[in-house]
Design goal:
Blueprint (H helix, E strand, L loop, with lengths): L2 H20 L2 H16 L8 H24 L22 H7 L2 H7 L4 H12 L4 H8 L3 H18 L7 H17 L2 H7 L5 E2 L14 E2 L1 H17 L8
Antiparallel strand pairs: 1-2
Helix pairs in contact: 1-2, 1-3, 2-3, 3-7, 6-7, 6-8, 7-8, 9-10, 10-11
Length: about 240
């Protein structure tokens, strides 16, 4: 099997690792491309192509994340991870961990971790890499990686809701909310929103974003009711995900 064929077999895994570390599809794709260039230019063939490429994409992603966080200090509005609707990587043995790590809630919690904590958590908790592999990927000792993993798990656990919402009730509430949005029903929107609700937006540098958040049920309801007709006029659509 050629190097390019080996790489293509692992591309979806490499992208999935990079995306969870970076929270950006474009940056993850760039990290995967840089990984290929380094692999193509390597004079020796690694014993384990998977371990080698996973380590390279992790190191590239850590460097990109550090640089991106410096850029985001001057970002207009609040930066959010870019939602990934379909994960190209599939591993039935870890389907629960993979799905959970793609939720917006999990991605926002990952944003609280340092780049090293995030990389260790992604490799260990999401993809199930052993600590020797994790240590080789991030360039730290196994003992240091175990400490990083403990800290990362604690930060993630501290940020999660104390109680899990019933999926059926959650879906019903979401359906009522989207129906109120479509109808422009200001009164129903006010009823559905928490009194201290805060609305923030991220245009990704491609569309206007809120410079400041909108706070309070009445204010947020009015903004939503005003925005939806404007979105319809430019053929935008709202889809629950």
């Amino acid at each position: 099997m050629s190097r390019s064929e080996e790489f293509e077999e692992l591309r979806s895994l490499l992208f999935s690792i990079a995306y969870r570390i970076l929270g950006s599809v474009a940056e993850a794709e760039d990290a995967v491309q840089e990984t290929w260039l380094r692999y193509e230019g390597s004079p020796t063939q690694p014993t384990s192509t998977k371990a080698f490429l996973s380590a390279v994409v992790t190191r590239v992603s850590i460097d990109v994340l550090r640089s991106a966080r410096r850029r985001r200090e001057t970002y207009v509005g609040q930066w959010f991870p870019e939602p990934l609707l379909t994960d190209p990587y599939d591993d039935p043995a870890r389907s629960a961990e993979l799905a959970d790590s793609l939720s917006m809630a999990a991605l926002l919690l990952l944003e609280r971790l340092t780049p090293l904590e995030r990389a260790v958590f992604v490799l260990r908790e999401v993809f199930g890499f052993g600590f020797p592999e994790v240590a080789a990927a991030v360039g730290r000792s196994e003992a240091a990686c175990r400490q990083l993993a403990v800290r990362a798990r604690r930060h993630m656990a501290d940020g999660r809701p104390r109680f899990a919402a019933d999926r059926r009730e959650r879906d019903e509430l979401a359906a009522r909310f989207f129906a109120a949005v479509r109808d422009g029903d200001l009164d129903r929107l006010r009823e559905l929103l928490a009194a201290d609700v805060e609305m923030v937006g991220d245009g990704g540098g491609k569309a206007p974003a809120f410079a400041n958040s909108v706070v309070g049920a009445d204010n947020v309801a009015r903004v939503i009711a005003a925005l939806y007709p404007a979105l319809l006029r430019i053929d935008a659509r709202i889809e629950p995900r």
